[in-house]
Amino acid sequence: MNQKLGALLTAVLLATACEDSPSGADAGRDAATPRDGGSAPDGATPDDAAVPPTDAGVTGFAARDCDLTIRHAPRVGASTVQLAGEFTGWADAPIDMVDHDGDGTFEVTLSPGPGLMPGQLLAYKLIVDGTWILDPEAAYRKYDDSCLNSAFVMPACTSGPEIRAGQLSTTYDSATDTGDAAVRLQILTASDGAIPSTVGVTIDDAPVAGLDAMFDEAAGAYDVSLADLAPGRHVLGVRVTDAMDRDAEPVDLPFWIEEEPFEWRDALMYMLVVDRFANGDESIDAPVGSPVEYPADFHGGDLWGALEVMQSGYFDDLGVNVIWLSPINQQAEGHFEGRDGSRRFAGYHGYWPSRGREVEPRFGGNEALQAFVDEAHSRGIRVLFDLINN
Ligand SMILES: [Ca+2]
Ligand SMILES: [Ca+2]
After folding, report:
1. Does 186 share its domain with 271?
2. Domain C-terminal end among 222, 239, 257
3. How far does residue 8's CA lie from ligand 1's centre (Å)?
4. At 173, which helix (H) or strand (E)?
5. Which residues, given as ranges, of the chain have pLDDT below 50?
6. Which strands form 206-207's sheet, in the order they lie side by side?
7. What is the 107 CA–ligand 1 centroid distance (Å)?
8. 352: CA distance to ligand 2 center in Å?
9. Is 47 in the same domain as 148?
10. pLDDT (tens digit, 9 = 90+) per residue, 296-328?
11. Residue 236: enclosing H or E segment and its boundaries?
12. Closest ligand to Cα 362
């Protein structure tokens, strides 16, 4: 039987952060707090005025699980496995993990409680026969002081409903050059059981009709099926709000209708340097000029030019189904010294980004990128961005 430890844990958060590495200032990422700002932990009685409408017995909507089970299977047999984290005061009160069935996997189930709030990102380490290690199965990492730890998020079971999408499947009919898609969407309520009041499903931003007929009441799930979709990329969007007016984390499922299922391992990739590939709009050429010599300056290539080449069927003729664009972010303006210490370079190559979400104006800006990607998707071509993050 799983240990329910939430009630035993006290919020001792000031103790030593890390047993096997030095500590320092907290550099951890922010906890993923519930979007409603955090509500009462599981088991708390809601205010009388806020008793959620429930529909128990009428539909099969299951409630979200507030507990989290951590498992670890030591590669070589171990006699003790413990869990220590900011919620145990680290070494102050590590929690024993137990191998109930003797299969070599140790586990512990954590319940919400002091120091273990739903939605909270928490740092921890495993202690295997006395040695502190990162959890190889951890979904997150978090710094506590200057020490790298594993981390988990306590399920945000009180923040609202949850959408769980199954595997989306597609078919393609060459006779009509259209396809079908199907996916099962299970809706879970928040832990207080408030029923979903609004379920919206869209395909490429248009509402999916006939949703009621797709509802599997016993399972609390929708079996969404879509027919006669055009070839190319589509996005199925799912939005759910419950009777307490809380939104589920939105779900968007991109998928493709295509004759041959795309496989990255079989892809034929074309890498192009935007500035040097094709000049579609000379009015946005803006070479830096002296002291930058011509080979180190912008030459005028842009995404409008690359789009024209694509529209000519050039990539299709080559059998290309992936285009890798050189970095397209807006670049630091001006010129900078090269590694040889004597020559000046402009950012034509794209490796000096200055804006995270804006496309270099010389390359056509965001509008050109959107047009390029839309055209690629309509041709079954994937586009890879080269993101320079350092
Ligand atoms: Ca076990
Ligand atoms: Ca140009």
Report:
1. no
2. 257
3. 22
4. strand 169-173
5. 1-17, 21-49, 57
6. 206-207, 196-203, 232-242, 251-257
7. 7
8. 19
9. yes
10. 999 999 999 999 999 999 999 999 999 999 999
11. strand 232-242
12. 2
